[in-house]
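A brief tutorial aside. Many learners find it easier to grasp structure tokens once they have seen a single protein encoded end to end. The record that follows does exactly this for DUF4397 domain-containing protein. Read the sequence first, then the structure, and try to relate runs of similar tokens to stretches of the chain.
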Amino acid sequence: MYFKALSVPLLVSASVLALAGCGGSSSDDSVYPSAYIQFYNGSPNSADTDLYLGDTELGGAAYGDASGLSTVDAGDATLALKRTDANDKVVEVMSKSITLSESHKSLFMLIGDYEAPTLVEHKFERQELTDHFILYAMSAVESANYDLYMAEAGAPFGDANKIDSLSFGDVIEGKYWDADSANPNWDSGDYVVFLTEPGKTEVIYESPTIKFSYDTEYTMVVRQSAGTSQNNLSVDLIINSTTISSYKDVRAGAQYRVYNSLEEQGMTVTVKGTDTDNQDALSSRELGEFHSVRYGDYQISAVTADSTSTFNNRLLTLNQGDAKTVVVYLNKEDKLTTLAFEESDLPQVYEHELNVVNLVKDYANVDIYFVRQDETVETAQYKIKRLGFANSEDITLPSDYFEIIALHDDNSGNQTLLYRTETLAIDEAVNYMVSIEPDVSSASGYRVALLP
């Protein structure tokens, strides 16, 4: 969403335009007369982080995300970054004195280790642009430098132009290779981005086509993905909005793993692709390790250890940078089948995005509660209601201790307790999965499994 700055009338007097053409106009005549501030979170092991100016909260951002653009008074101020811990206590990450200037945007970018982060201030004068844009760029990857190349969409790397070299925390202004004397800025249009190691010509990142369609200042940030696929590079484009356009490497690999949910049967799961033929021999209730493969479409088949149940030629699609978990289970006709969900690519340090899967076919839906020490089912803050059979849903929890309680509610006030776990710590930097599934050894006939 755009903020107040973009609601300024676009009608400008001829005298002001003349002054602007000569490069001189007072801040009172500027299309952007105020000061502007925005926050971007590029710290790969961070929590959701909020931006404060004095005592005023201006919005927050998860990793790879940004706050909105805020219009503020120019002058000296105190900036603070804060997060909320598992006890709902606001914790200060860092603070510093800053100076905000009229007609300028101050983009504060948090990068590096969240325990001792680096805060980069990128300040620039906002300009009124027509059919052009300005490009800034920076690397948020520690201990790595890159050469940045760009080309018009569709062009190969051999026709790309070197823009500049990128290093951690240093913002550069990228110069357009085809600029003319009348306008030094970039022509609006479609481009592709390439990254190489310094001084080399082997491409280590290639973007899809990127549409630079807004007449504004773009800040490009190179970062690493978090979550399961931690070594893939992404390019984020920051403008005056909470919406960040993020572009994965078009040649990046993918990952998958398989969970055998059957309680008394092992199985062999085969995944085949153009140059892939992987087999997993999984025991009952076993979650396999991640396999790294090329992106693409795969054929997945399975057979139980006693050969009584099989399926063949199911499609598994893995796009660039994807990490998926495939769950093998029995459907309502007791036929072997699968469901798949995509793993989170956010940091799993202070907060954890869990995928919850319902494999209980005896009920139309199940309620799942994550109950902390001072809570009951009725007061639990974190819960998933009415999760249908063979469906999955994700939920984000803070690092803490939880009982996981699965219930069926018949909509008449009658609740059936399916299972209640002991108190479990959810605090590891892993991608957790929760499965509600049949279990003949349980008194209720069901169980809840927390799988890292």
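Self-check: The first strand starts at residue 35 and ends at 42. If you spotted this yourself, you are ready for the next section.
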